[in-house]
Amino acid sequence: MPETFFVTTPIYYVNDVPHIGHAYTTVAADALARYHRMAGKTVLFITGTDEHGQKVQEAARRRGISPQQHCDEMVVRYRELWSALTISHDDFVRTTEERHQRIVQAILTALYQKGDIYKTSYEGWYCVPDERFWTEKDLTDGRCPECGREVQQIRESNYFFRMGSYQEWLISYIDEHPDFILPRTRRNEILGFLRQPLTDLCISRPAQRLSWGIPMPFDPEYVTYVWFDALINYVSTAGYLTRDDQFLSLWGNAVHLIGKDILTTHCVYWPTMLKALGLPPPRTIFAHGWWTVEGRKMSKSLNNVVEPNSLITRYGSDPVRFFLLREGTFGLDADFSHKAFIHRVNSELANDLGNLFSRTLAMTAKYFGGSIPSPSAMEDVDRRLSDTALESVRRVDAAMADIAFHKSLDAVWELVGMANKYIDETAPWSLAKRDGGGQRLGTVIYQVIESLRFIAILLHPFIPSAAERMRAALGLKEPIGPGSLAALSRWGETIPGTALTSIPPLFPRIEA
Ligand code: MSP
Question: So what's the pLDDT on residue 436?
Answer without folding.
Answer: 61
